[in-house]
Amino acid sequence: MSSLPAVSEALVKFQNKVLIPYWPYAAVPAAVVGTLKLIEWLAPGPGHNDRLNLQDKTVLISGASSGLGRALAFEFYKRGAKVIVVARSLDKLAQLCADLEATKSECGNPHEPVYRYIDLSELGDEAAAQRQVDDLVSLAIDGKTIDVLVNNAGMSMRGSCTDTSMKVQRQVMECNYFGHVLLTKMLLDHIPDNGAILVTSSLQGKVALPYRSAYSASKHALQAFFDSLRCEDRPNLQILTVSAGYINTGFGSRALNADGHPTGIEDPNQKQGYSAEDAAYRIVNRLVRRDTEYVMASFTHRLAIALRYFTPNLLFWMLHKRGQSDTHGKKQS
User: Fold this and answer.
1) Number of domains in the chain
2) Catalytic: 215?
3) Keywords for this entry (predicted)?
């Protein structure tokens, strides 16, 4: 008990020397952030919708055969949704649906998961895609409503801007951008106002990296398209764009090189990233909360986004230095 006066005296000195003289330096930024958050909360939009209840809702997931898409299928199914999974690998999709069915008694989901083949880079135009889209819609619980569209399919690449062939540039853009745009356009009228669109993008949709030109460009384009869509005829429709950092899914080893062949080289940074299951859990929670933007990344990666806006030349120099050691992204002689 004799130490209490000393502790009390120390607290008073701390208050007089630190808290009182310097509190304005902390109060002003806190007030600015608080005001901005209040304005954002007051602004009309999907944030005022009721929380998204996934029970007995139909969820369509592209790129669901592996990685994050597969993990998202389990997360949505666990929450009572009927999942329609699409990708290019029918064998993997069939196994995914069998694995989901095996959890039916555990999670109490009465809905049968179903799958279809879709290659987003080969959908063609609206007329060519209509039959596939009509088939997908017919698989919904009510045969007409897709409550949640998950635009998840994608491919990556490694190669310098000068070495990467135009074939690879177009191939990545077709899958990562044009395919999602077309699928969204075709399904938009089937998504209710209290439904949602989930876009699994990347930090590279905000900050481009060296030797990732096609991938970064496609993700920038994806971000821009859905930003525009938010501002048009249905501002209350939730569109959640996830700017994801590294996720440990083996995605990097499937990246195309400058000539269009898989690199077969895993990105060591991805091995240290989120697990697919953890990422899926975080993302679906944000969707349920009616968020519209989610930067799922470490503080360092978030800082890169801030540097891009406030000190771009510093960031470009830092990324240049990073690129000098990124030899696997360069064309091999």
Assistant:
1) 2
2) yes
3) Oxidoreductase
Q: Which of 211, 215, 246, 274 is catalytic?
A: 215
pLDDT over 70 for what percent of the chain?
A: 89
Reduced to 3 states (helix: H, G, I; strand: E, B; else coil), residue 197 is: strand
pTM metric for this prediction: 0.86
The answer to whether residues 86 and 9 belong to one domain is no
Query: 70: which residues sit within 8 A by CB, 6+ positions away?
Result: 64, 92, 96, 276
Do 153 and 300 belong to one domain? yes
pLDDT tens digit sequence for 29-64: 777 767 777 777 677 778 778 899 999 999 999 999
- The answer to whether residue 19 sits within a structural domain is yes
Residue 48 lies in a domain: no
The CA distances from residue 247 to 55, 71, 270, 282, in Å, are 27, 12, 6, 12
The C-alpha R_g of the chain, in whole angstroms, comes to 23
Which residues does 55 contact at the CB level (< 8 Å), separation at least 6?
Answer: 79, 80, 81
Asked if 246 and 272 sit in the same domain, the reply is: yes
| 186 and 223 in a common domain | yes
Whether the pLDDT of residue 238 is over 90: the answer is yes
Weakest-pLDDT range from 1-10, 113-122, 141-150, 247-256? 1-10
> For 280-294, what is each residue's pLDDT tens digit?
999 999 999 999 999
Domain coverage including residue 27: 1-38
Residue 105 lies in a domain: yes
**Quick check: is 252 in a domain?**
yes
